[in-house]
Structures are given as C-alpha cells and as structure tokens.
Design a protein that fits this description.
With 402 residues, this protein is of the alpha/beta class. Helices cover 44% and strands 15% of the residues. α11 (303-310) links the parallel β10 and β11.
C-alpha cells in the first residue's frame, strides 16, 4: 500500500525574513532526498514584510486564494500529516484556525510549527472570547514544534508539553568555505535584522557611539528594513513585555528620531546601511565582518545568528528565546541582558581588543554550527516529528504559485 504524503503549508521568499528563508532551506534539503512524498503549498499571504499583520480586503482575497490551493492539495493528495506555521496574533490565529480545522476534517495529523517566543503573551493579552477560541482550536492540533526546549513552557496549560517537539533552524553548508580574515586595525561590527527597538538596534547604536569614543577604528555595517510608520511602531510594541514596552512607549519619538538620524548620517558615524541583503551579497558581507551583534528583545531562533556562526564570527547577543541554548556564554560569544547598552558595549569591547579571542570563538562557532545545525539533519528530524518514524529520504511535490 502506497504511503500517504506529508503536506507542508509553509511560506517561501519573497519576502525575505526568517520564516521564509528557513522554510526554503528545509524544502531544498528535502528535495535532495527520495522515498517519502512531501507536498508543499506556499502559504504566503503577503509579499512584503511591511504589509504583514495588516487586516484589509486584499489580505482576505490573498488568503482565500492561498487556502484554495491548500484545500485542493489536501483533496488531491490526501496527506497523512499537515504542518503549518502557527501565528501569535489575532488575525493570524483566526486564519490558522481554518487550516487546522481543514486538516482535522480530512483526518490529517496536524502540527503547528511556532517560530516565535511570545505565544503565552498573545494568549494572556487576548479577550476571554479569543482565549476560549484559542483553547478550542488547539484541541484539534496533534503536535506543536518550537525552536528550543525552554520555549515549550509558552504552551503550558494550553497544550500537553509532551506533545511539543523541538526543531532548530538549519543551514545548508555545502560549498561553504570559512573566510581567511586578514587582521587589521579596522574592526567591523555587523547587524542583520529589522532596524527596530525590538531587534535591539537602538541599544546597539547607543553602545556603538560610546565605543567609538574609545575605539575610533571600529565601524558598523547594518542590514534590514527600517519600520517607521505608526502601524509598524505598534507591531514593534506588541513584541515587548512589561517594562520594555513601557520604556518604548515613553521614549518612542526619541528612539525613532535617533535611529533615523543615525541612518541619515551614517558616514559621520563610520557606519554603512546595506538595505536588504541576500545571496552572494549577503555571503560577502558576513565574510568581511569581524563581529556579529544582535541585542534583540525577542527571538525564536535567529537565522542571522546561525548564519554568523556558520561564517565563523564571534557573536554578542541577548539572553532571549532559543539563544541561550544555542550560544554558550564565553564559548560562542557573549550573552547580555536586554536593554543594557553598557553591558553590550563592554562585551563588544572584549572582542574589539582581542583578534585572537575573535578567532578562537569564531572557529568554535563554525564547528558547532556544522555539527549541530546542518539543514539535512534538521530536515530528517522534521520528517521524524511529522511521521513518527525516521525517514531516509523525501520526494517534493510543489503545489505553490506566486
């Protein structure tokens, strides 16, 4: 009897953000294999990061089109399992509920892959009616995937913790060669992510300007999208907790103005804005950097951090999300508390002052990334989670369209 396929309802680029890039890497890894049939339906509702989270008529039409492709694939292929990215906002979760109900109706094993770190906050701040809806919908889910063991507790009281699997991000290291970094007095810091308070960009420029007064040989390259309209500011605030959110709202004008001023006067700060980077340009940027920094307030498992490890960079990041499980403080770089620019500057200074420490940590990161986060290993682990048994291979059928 022919084995039923597994259906992956996942986004792929564009737009270029962590979930899309990670899903694309997984699909490419699975496409190299044979034996188990995997059907992919592209789940993108938006083609632009700035449009994500907006509720409007075009979004409804776009989701209806995407849902039609999903329903058609389920009817045509009758998959045994359905995996999708689980959302933690009202509009996204309501949309997810239609996917969950459809999978449940067709007797698929339904697995929600959650790539964030604040589902518990979403639930806590929801109305009583929405809380009831979330609990009811999650009863139709067979499994949940998170990106670190510490993130399982987000679903405490909502889903059995023994039904929550851990799946890290992965990278395809085929063809990757570690760059030979020529030591020079110039030390280049690199930041990749949305240029927002929640990603720690404001704290970084505060720390960086302090460091430049003592170390004029440093420079900062930064890549990502600057989100500055009112709706985008609200989306930033949604990611923050307690005192961090209050601080953001109390200083939102100052924060936005300082980020914008820094970007407008980048040359005066010995900085360079790269915009959005991908492909060969991204590879070149990582290879030319000396230190990677991401002082984010909220993360699941940052793809940018994993890429930095793969390119042999020492890392300074915050103790959020999966990062404390991925990065051992003092071995793979340094971990600091969020909203602490002084500690951030101190740890960066240790690396700025010691080329040998940068190389030691960078070499450790490159080896760790290849041993633990190879996308081929991650892909096989995903199949084990979805099917309940180890699979040596997979065949990909793409049912997506842009």
């Amino acid at each position: 009897m022919k084995q039923k396929p597994i259906l992956l309802f996942l986004p792929t680029p564009p737009p270029y953000a962590g979930p899309e890039v990670a899903s694309d890497l997984l699909l490419r890894a699975l496409a190299k294999l044979e034996g188990v049939e995997v059907v992919h339906v592209r789940s993108n509702v938006r083609q632009d990061n700035r449009a994500k989270g907006n509720f409007n008529f075009s979004g409804i039409v776009s989701f209806a089109r995407v849902y039609g492709r999903l329903l058609g694939a389920i009817i045509r292929h009758r998959p045994s399992a359905l995996c999708f990215l689980l959302s933690s906002n009202r509009v996204g979760f309501i949309r997810d509920s239609t996917v969950i109900f459809t999978g449940w109706l067709f007797r698929c094993r339904v697995t929600g892959h959650y790539r964030g770190a604040h589902f518990d906050k979403f639930y806590r701040l929801s109305s009583p009616t929405l809380k009831w809806f979330v609990r009811t919908v999650l009863k139709m889910v067979d499994g949940i995937i998170v990106q670190a063991a510490a993130l399982r507790n987000m679903f405490a009281g909502l889903f059995p913790l023994d039904g929550i699997a851990v799946l890290p991000n992965g990278l395809d290291f085929d063809g990757w060669n570690l760059p030979t970094r020529i030591q020079s007095e110039r030390v280049r810091l690199l930041f990749v992510g949305h240029l927002t308070f929640a990603k720690g960009f404001y704290d970084l420029i505060v720390a960086y300007d302090e460091l430049r007064a003592r170390h004029p040989q440093i420079e900062l390259w930064f890549a990502g999208e600057f989100m500055d309209n009112e709706r985008q500011k609200f989306r930033v605030a949604e990611l923050l907790d307690g005192d961090d959110q209050k601080y953001f709202f109390d200083h939102v004008t100052e924060i936005s103005d300082r980020i914008k001023s820094f970007m407008d006067n980048e040359q005066a700060h010995d900085a360079k804005y790269l915009g959005r980077i991908a492909g060969d340009e991204k590879r070149s940027v990582f290879e030319s950097a000396d230190i990677f920094v991401l002082p984010s307030y909220t993360e699941g498992f940052s793809m940018a951090v994993l890429e930095a490890m793969g390119y042999g960079l020492p890392i300074v990041a915050t103790k959020v999300g999966a990062l404390p499980e991925v990065l051992q403080d003092g071995v793979h770089g340094f971990l600091v508390d969020r909203r602490d620019p002084k500690a951030l500057a101190d740890r960066l200074e240790k690396l700025i002052q010691s080329p040998s420490l940068r190389k030691q940590i960078g070499d450790s990161n490159a080896a760790h990334a290849r041993a633990s986060y190879d996308i081929n290993l991650v892909g096989r682990q995903l199949l084990r989670i979805l099917s309940g048994k180890q699979e040596d291979a997979a065949k990909i059928i793409t049912c997506s369209s842009t």
